[in-house]
Design goal:
Blueprint lengths: L2 H20 L3 H9 L3 H29 L5 H17 L9 H9 L3 H31 L6 H26 L1 H10 L7 H26 L3 H24 L6 H16 L9 H11 L5 H43 L1
Length: 334
């Protein structure tokens, strides 16, 4: 993606945030945040770190199916970098770098590294889709004050069901996956998107081979419970930080969080900044909660979780650099 495009998208994110702040008094927002329950916010961050551990553990266990002698400490920095880049780039495109890191540092082929990502993503999407379906059902059946919004949520529900069926079809049929990739041939005119599409086309065979391997070794026995645990930590960490300043019921915060997360998948703004906040403020406003209270919780949650993401991502880069330095020292000794 061109530098100019990245700058435009970043500025768009900032403009959305400024639009949200324009409708309120910043001093009042800061005053609400200053009265936050620090214990709840701290517990939220701890649970987010638990989420990071469990997600990296999934990567480790999947990688171990491919290379038995691999250590958790070797997989962790790759996961942290993937999580960081995936969350700060449009459409999580930064995660494309991970297969190359697998090859460079773990001597695992790009196709197998790609498979680790995709299999983990499959289980993540399955659990997320179930949560999204529940969230949409909940919102539709709540006392929404805007009838038009209720209709939109019903349309979204239908769309999510279609997408879930389509994703399952791709998973179990190589032919459908190949045809699906051909649809995107139009985007090959863009150099950045062309590289991503070419990579997917080249690694599709390795992906399906790894799926067969995981079926044989029954990887789903640990992937399902670990993924459920991950999303439990994701939900609770968000809720505790948000509720530390905004005493809104658990289900309303959680379902809004899930729908806002879905909205960020469809936009090009980095980390979904602006779009996520706008979605949360819009949905919770439908229930009649005070605007300032919603915005304070939204901004605090964004600041703390994104800050923690940056710290863990930076740690991943440091661990990789340390690994490279150790290799150089060993080479000199030899």
């Amino acid at each position: 993606m061109k530098k100019k495009t990245k700058i435009i998208l970043f500025l768009l994110s900032i403009l959305i945030l400024l639009f949200l702040l324009k409708k309120t008094d910043l001093r009042e927002i800061l005053e609400i945040i200053s009265k936050a329950n620090l214990l709840m916010a701290f517990l939220g961050i701890i649970l987010y770190l638990c989420l990071v551990f469990f997600r990296s553990l999934k990567w480790f266990l999947l990688t171990k199916e491919i290379k038995k002698e691999v250590k958790y400490s070797e997989v962790l920095p790759i996961f942290l970098i993937n999580s960081f880049l995936g969350n700060i780039t449009p459409l999580k495109s930064g995660g494309v770098l991970s297969p190359f890191l697998f090859k460079k540092y773990l001597k695992i082929s790009e196709g197998q590294g790609f498979s680790v990502m995709m299999i983990d993503m499959f289980f993540e999407i399955i659990v997320f889709c179930l949560l999204l379906l529940f969230s949409l059902f909940y919102i539709i059946n709540s006392n929404i004050k805007n009838q038009l919004s209720s209709v939109v949520f019903k349309e979204l529900l239908f769309l999510v069901i279609l997408m879930a069926v389509f994703a399952c079809a791709i998973l179990f049929s190589k032919k459908i996956a190949a045809r699906f990739l051909r649809i995107f041939s139009f985007f090959k005119k863009n150099p950045f998107l062309n590289k991503i599409i070419d990579f997917f086309e080249k690694q599709i065979e390795s992906f399906y081979q790894t799926i067969i391997l995981c079926k044989e070794k029954k990887s789903y026995y640990y992937m399902i419970p670990l993924t459920i645990a991950v999303w439990l930590f994701e939900i609770l960490s968000f809720y505790l930080i948000f509720a530390s300043v905004s005493p809104i019921p658990f289900l309303k915060i959680t379902t809004t969080q899930i729908i806002a997360a879905a909205a960020t998948f469809l936009v090009l703004t980095p980390a979904g900044i602006g779009v996520a906040e706008l979605s949360i403020v819009f949905i919770l406003s439908l229930f009649g909660y005070p605007y300032n209270l919603i915005l304070a919780g939204t901004l605090l949650t964004r600041f703390l979780l994104t800050g923690t993401l940056f710290l863990t991502g930076f740690s991943g880069f440091l661990l990789i650099k340390n690994k490279e330095a150790q290799k150089i020292d060993i080479t000199k000794l030899a």
